[in-house]
Structures are given as C-alpha cells and as structure tokens.
Please model this.
Amino acid sequence: MNSKSMQSHHIHYASLGSPWSAKADKIQSATGIMLGCFLLAHLHFESSILLGKEAFYHVVQFLEGGLFTSSGHGMPIVTKVFSIFIMLVVIVHAAVALRRFPAQLGQWRALRRHMQGIKHKDSHAWFWQLVTGFILFFLAPVHIFTMITNPEIGPHLSAERVYHANAWLLYALLLPAVVIHAMIGLYRVALKWGLTANRRGLRKVAKILIIYLISIGVLSLVSYLIIGRELTLPITPFVP
Ligand code: HEM
Model:
C-alpha cells in the first residue's frame, strides 16, 4: 500500500469512529455538563447583587468558606483554587471539542451547503454552538485568569473591576456567547443521552433559559456599573 492510500485508509477509519472517539465524546459531555451546571449556579450567585450589596456580600462570604473561619469572613484563596480547577475543566473540554471543528475551507462550505439545504433546526443549533465555542476560546480564559490572579470579590471590589477596570466590555461579549453555548450544549447532551425525546419541548426550555439568563446577567452588569460610577478611587471594600 503506498503512502497516499494508507493516508486515505487512515482517514476513512478515523471517520468511522474509534474507542478513543467514543471516550472523547463522553469526556466532552461530562465536562460540558459540569460547566453548564456551573454557569447556571454562577449567574444566579452573581446576580444576587440585584437584591442589594448586602445580599451579594453574604453570598460571596458563604462561597469563600466563611462558615469555617472564626471571623466569618470568606477567603479569596478558595476562589483562586476553584478558578484553577474550572480553568482545567475548560481546557479539557476545549481540547476534546477541537476535533469537531471543520478544519478546512471545503468542510466549511459543505457545512453551509448542508445547512442551507435541509434547514433542520438542530443543524443550526450545532452551527451556533460552534461559533460561540470559537468566541469562548478567546474570552473565557481572560475572565478565569483574572479570577485566579485577582480573586477579590465583593459589591465594591466587583463594581470596581466592572466599571473602573472596564471588565463590562468583556462581560458584554462573554455573557451572550457562554449562555447560548451552554444552553445549546445541555439541550444536545440531554437528547444524545436519551434524557427525553421531546425535542420541541426541550428546545422551548433552552430558549426560555437563554432569554432568562441573559436578562439577569445584563441587569446585574448594569447594577455593577451604577455602583461603580458612584465609587471614588481608591475604593474601600463594602462591609455591612
Ligand atoms: C471559578 C471561576 C469563576 C469565578 C470565581 C467567577 C466569578 C465572577 C464574578 C465575581 C463576576 C462578577 C463581576 C466581577 O467581579 O468581575 C463574574 C462575572 C461573569 N462571569 Fe464569572 N467566574 C468564574 C468563571 C466563569 C466562567 C467559566 C464563565 C463562562 C465562561 C463565566 C462567565 C461570567 C460572565 C458572563 C460574567 C458577567 C455576568 C453578567 O453579565 O452579569 N465565569 N464572574
């Protein structure tokens, strides 16, 4: 067998699937579920700012292990360590997802032809997950690295980051990209592993969650901007 036909055989077998491919599929689903659930919790904890500075302050103290310190104050090191863990999960998730990216122009053209041809809603969902996944490749690490290097969180500390350090720019792009990516991802995983066969109902749930999460995210972002605008530098951390 010459090298050209060996190569084509190799590609042929690879496309048929292999034990590694099945394993990578499971790793992608498992890390995707972890990140999707994390995002659902994250946006709710973070939007406690909508209930006031004090509510957000207490949520942060609790999540940073305030229950286990004599002073009742949380420890930013908890955020740092957890952020490193989330970064590792994101890296594994992205590494196994890379093999799904159409690598060549011809494959992109085929994908576009396919989408125009069949107008199947799930193909469009998959396409949007691909586009948002590509965007997240650049945006998510910036945010997670910031939480690793500068893990101080609080009503004033977060407002300072959002308003004075211009993190709102990053969040305004990250929020829709990650919410769409995560909700389409959870929808596809639920169908893939047979959680339900009701595509139409599940699609409705995913759409409602996308609108709901982007709404609470935008409202929280506006709250941080309003709080940040009223702060004078250097800021003093909020204490109830
Ligand atoms: C464990 C790691 C993480 C920590 C500790 C964390 C913490 C925070 C905090 C405290 C904020 C509020 C603003 C600020 O203080 O800067 C925020 C905002 C945000 N985070 Fe994270 N985050 C983490 C990981 C992630 C990941 C993996 C994503 C998704 C890729 C994400 C998406 C967002 C978005 C979209 C916002 C803006 C929300 C809004 O618009 O209201 N975060 N994060």
Q: What stands out?
A: Residues 39, 42, 46, 79, 82-83, 86, 140, 143-144, 147, 153, 158, 161-162, 167, 171, 174-175, 178, 217, 220-221 surround protoporphyrin IX containing FE (CB under 6 Å). Residues 3-16 have pLDDT under 50 and may be disordered. The chain is about 80% helix and 0% strand.
